[in-house]
Amino acid sequence: MLLRSQACRNRMDRLRLRDRYMTEINTPTIAGFEILKKLGQGGMATVWMARQISLDRVVAIKVLLPRFAVDDEEIARFRSEAQAAARLKHPGIVQVYDASVTDGSYYFIMEYIAGYTVGEWLRRKATLPERDALVVAEHVCDALGYAWDHAKVIHCDIKPDNVMIDDDGTVKVMDLGLARTLNAMSSFVEDDEHVLGTPSYMSPEQARGDAHLDFRSDIYSLGAMLYHLVTGKRLFSETDENTALEMQITGCAPDPIDLNPALSRPLCALIERMLAKNPDLRGESWQSVHADMRRVYSGLTPHQTLHADEMSTIQRSERRAPVDTERLKRLTKNNTRLSLPGAVWATLWTAIAAVAIAAAVRFYLGLASHTPPPVQPAPPPARPTATPRQQPPQGPATGAVSDINESPEEKLYQAAVAWQRANPADPDGAIALYEKVIQAARGTSYERRAEASITLLKAERRQTRQQQVDALQKRLNGHKEAGEYAQAEALVAAYAGDLPEDTAFRERMRQDIQRHRQARESQARLEDRKRQEQLAKEIMTPVLQLAAKAIVQGNLQRAIDLTRPLREQQSISYYHDALSELETELEVLINLDSWILETFRQQEGQTIEVSLNSQTVLLTIGILQDGQLQCFQQTGDGEFEEIHITLQDLTQQERLARLSTEHPGAAAVARGMMACKAGAYLQASTHFKNAHFLIASPLSQAADEVSQSQ
Prior knowledge:
The protein is an alpha+beta fold. The protein has helices at 2-25, 72-86, 118-125, 130-151, 179-189, 204-208, 215-231, 241-250, 256-259, 265-274, 286-297, 325-332, 342-369, 408-422, 427-440, 445-481, 485-494, 500-552, 556-563, 576-590, 592-601, 652-662, 664-677, 681-688, 693-709; strands at 33-41, 45-52, 57-64, 96-102, 105-111, 115-117, 163-166, 171-173, 253-254, 314-315, 607-611, 616-625, 628-634, 640-645.
């Protein structure tokens, strides 16, 4: 496996070197276009500036590199998806005009953009200001939303280098509708390395290789790009590609505010939601994501944010403070004060002052023009009559006694306040009372007071629950990191929350524990396999080198005697099956004559062509007896003549052809040994490369050493 992987990398290095050489010496010739200059070259294509002669306009031509030559089915897909991309017409999308295949070269004709990529901008500035990054993300969101709503097209490779800024400041998305085609071609050529995108921006479902992706995968990629723009760091950039893919599925990255403390909390909440592990939590549409971006740009929190127990690729930081309940307490502390805005209070005081001044003037004028009437003695005061006291509003409990001047709304409100103070552990009961106040006091100050009280109670309830969840989450993380999964599951089972969201929270925590366990076990298996492979390589390499030298010298039995003891070592049990396969192929070569004759027994009764030393004849195969094969050959008069052939009557090509069908690795060794006998060691080295993967490289090296020594 290690040897094949190294061979694959060597092959890809040679292909890339050839691509670079062919690009440097060959300017493409495309009918109807005049190539002006080379704009750049990436891992898959070279981009040229050209003039379209028929329309006299400047275009960009993206020519795929020479190694991307695929079958007819891929060509049809290439053209189909290019046509779909050409139908996307939006100011934020780089327009695709045409796509074709000429002389084995694939190319796209695209709108020429005189500008720079966001990736180049980011490399110059290290990080982008928050508002600039939001403007870029908002335009990309518009373009991707258009593509999804009108054609159900997704990008699959959103990153800064695929977004351009035109000379007039327009943000444009490149390769929209083409990324999946390009990735498919890349996968076809580099299947051994599984190059399927840019790991730092890939969604968990894309990293898993899910076949059916939708717009929510692009939301995640846009969130990853936004994270990169404002922090200057790609997600999991410090790891290799395979680890980055695994981390996209199960891992977490630092909160953006920890990398750039100047960022606003609403922006961090937006990125956190876009990078939710669960696609359902990222947003129900591109329009909802766009609306949240506009709110963040205005300094407001997104409409929807993730709860602490909902998994995101962002590890929420302690820098992001919880809900500020103190401000709400201050607003509702004085329950007797009318809850009106300052501007309203100013208007009321102005009106009162105006009325008072008007009354004073009128009174003064009245004194100046009239004689006051004689003073009459005041009548004796009337004896007050008793007024029955009203009962407080019915509720779970009543606290203070109402004054005779209180309105029914005030009584109901004061009763709710008293009940809340007497029952601090039951916020739901208080909320129910305040809701009754709202229904009964529509249009009064008590409606607004009740609403403020409910807001405060709900915020306090959320904060209390959040503190409990955070404490539980911290304990769970400790158990998970220590591998104590039974204790973690017991903690979740013991969580006593009874809110509707608590049931979902417990289920998410169980799933998170299970994913963490599976990821840990997978990582342990991977590390164990790497250790086994490394140990096996250290043990087997010197033995296989000796066996290869014996094979080159024609001593197959010596090679078997050297490799057989390896199967008895438990430390390399990972390779026991492969060693058994190698021994079987070497034994086939030792008993080659018998094995080849045995292949004729399997064709008994069939009429086949057989290549003999004299000629190739059509024979009906009979029985095999005493090393001779009974055959029947039809004569010119229609009769059948019985003949007997031995192994010596068969040509070398006939023997190798029969060997290649069942044991291609053994056939490669046989061809190499024949070349060694003839002294053609370079040719032998080529044949040996197709042998069993354990012995292929040592055999090729042994043949090369003999060739160099001569």
